[in-house]
Specification:
It contains 16 helices and 14 strands. By secondary structure, it is an alpha/beta fold. The chain has 2 domains: 174 residues, Aspartate Aminotransferase, domain 1 (Alpha-Beta Complex); 252 residues, Type I PLP-dependent aspartate aminotransferase-like (Major domain) (Aspartate Aminotransferase, domain 2), CATH 3.40.640.10. The strands form 5 sheets. It has a 5-stranded mixed beta sheet with strand order 2-8-7-6-5, sandwiched between helices. Its cofactor is pyridoxal 5'-phosphate.
């Protein structure tokens, strides 16, 4: 018999959740323009919109808030965070930022010139936006398996070395300031990169004089998959695997709001002293002093502790297993999801869930809206809306993956909450033909998924043609 395990923590404080009626949820959804980003959190029952900044901090972290040094310059809390990053991640230089996109902005401004190319293992929205705003073109060099939700590949985040070499040959190494390697790959379904692939990518780039910068936001989750799936790592500690991973890079951008287990903050890390000096000057312009970079001293204290808590083997095992608790039940019920189950979220395959809708009808956006209407569970579209428009043609980018992301915050919900999500999705799947598509009524010029507004395409104006108002 397989012994069941419980959460590696106990609950000290609770927050009451909103449990709106069907009519109240419908009103909230209409007010938000059918965009789950625009729904007030007070109207959400189970919030799976994102794992960014939604972590429940530990008692040690809450206690550390009282010891934060809020000095404008030379903060003791910064020294503690800097030392922790150097020790756990292994980089020589660290600069604090208010969150990950602050680090992306600085790296892009300093490394990119107009006309450059940035190869990467599938785009991420804010990362690509910063690269393009500074004149670069993103080139996807992820393995083909990553674009197929049905392929059960253990490391779908891997870079295809042949594709990468072709980009180098076509545009010239001098026009590639760095390769952007995400660990894990969010938009592929939270898919990891193997240690072997990281090593090979780093070797290829070094032989061509190209830097490798990681999007290390969920690097601990990636380390867990290496321990679980790659030969030679089963008996190693997560902390040791993580440090080896990061050694095959020249630096990273980090959103501390994920694997650093805090609600705000981030950093830019690197090994090159000259780049560090230049970056330090831009931190002053965009973020704040290099000894706080947009974070309060108390946040830096909490992040330093969170970095160490995140590499605890018991913590990360439970983290991954809770995601699987949700995903495995959906698989058993015949719900189409991205395989294999990723590290931070379960991704519904909206194309297969709603096959009667064309991609131009925004099936993932419609499914996310329908899920909220059905049960008050908030999720996120990751498809044609998130992909935005081609900067040259103005046409919609049409990714092969049209997904709804069910993102599980760290240490926040129990498995019973996941069971509620499963029940709602199964009910929706059983009446999927009744869900209509959406039209976009307002489109922001950049990162449109945050603020776009929609309305149902049905003649009745209903998202679900046969509403069941008896639902709670």
């Amino acid at each position: 018999m397989v012994r069941r395990t419980a959460e590696p923590y106990k609950i000290k404080s609770v927050e009451t959740l909103a449990m709106l009626s069907y009519d109240e949820r419908k009103e909230a959804l209409i007010k938000a323009g059918y965009n789950t980003f625009l729904i007030d959190s007070a109207d959400v029952y189970i919030d799976l919109l994102t794992d960014s900044g939604t972590t429940a901090m530990s008692d040690a972290q809450w206690g550390a808030l009282m010891t934060g040094d809020e000095a404008y310059a030379g903060s003791k809390s910064w020294k503690k965070l800097e030392e922790t990053v150097r020790e756990v991640y292994g980089y020589r230089y660290v600069l604090p930022t208010h969150q990950g996109r602050g680090a992306e902005n600085i790296l892009s401004q300093l490394k990119i010139k107009d006309g450059d190319f940035i190869p990467g293992n599938m785009y991420f929205t804010t990362t690509r936006a910063h690269q393009e705003m500074n004149g670069a073109k993103f080139v996807d060099v992820i393995i083909d398996e990553a674009h197929d939700p049905n392929v059960n590949h253990p490391f779908k985040g891997n870079i295809d070395l042949t594709k990468l070499q072709k980009v180098i040959d076509d545009v010239g190494a001098e026009n590639i300031p760095y390769v952007c390697l995400a660990v894990t790959v969010n938009l592929a379904g939270g898919q990891p990169v193997s240690m072997e692939n990281m090593k090979d990518v780093y070797s290829l780039c070094k032989s061509n004089g190209i830097d490798v910068f990681l999007d290390a936001t969920r690097c601990v989750e990636n380390a867990y998959f290496i321990k679980e799936r790659e030969d030679g790592f089963a008996d190693k500690k997560i902390a040791a695997i993580l440090k080896e991973m990061l050694s095959y890079s020249d630096g990273c951008t980090m959103s501390g709001k994920k694997d650093c287990l805090v609600n705000i903050g981030g950093f830019l890390a690197m090994n090159d002293e000259e780049l560090y000096i230049r970056s330090r000057e831009l931190v002053v312009v965009y973020e704040g002093m290099p000894s706080y970079g947009g974070m309060a001293g108390r946040d830096m204290e909490a992040m330093a502790i969170g970095i160490r808590e995140a590499v605890d083997d018991h913590y990360i095992e439970h983290r991954i297993q809770q995601v699987r608790h949700l995903g495995d039940q959906l698989i058993d019920a015949g719900i189409p999801i991205v395989l294999p189950i990723g590290g931070h979220a379960v991704f519904l395959d909206a194309r297969k869930f709603l096959p009667h809708l064309k991609q131009e009808d925004f099936p993932a956006q419609a499914l996310a809206a329908a899920l909220y209407l059905d049960s008050g569970v908030r999720s996120m579209e990751r498809g044609i809306i998130s992909a935005g428009r081609n900067i040259e043609t103005g046409e919609n980018n049409t990714p092969k993956l049209e997904l709804v992301r069910l993102t599980i915050p760290r240490r926040v919900y129990t498995n019973n909450h996941m069971n509620v999500v499963v029940d709602s999705i199964i009910d929706l799947f059983n009446k999927r033909d009744e869900i209509c598509g959406l039209q976009m009524d307002y489109e922001p010029p950049t990162l449109r998924f945050f603020n776009a507004r929609f309305s149902p395409l049905s003649k009745s104006g209903k998202l679900i043609s046969k509403e069941n108002k008896t639902m709670n």
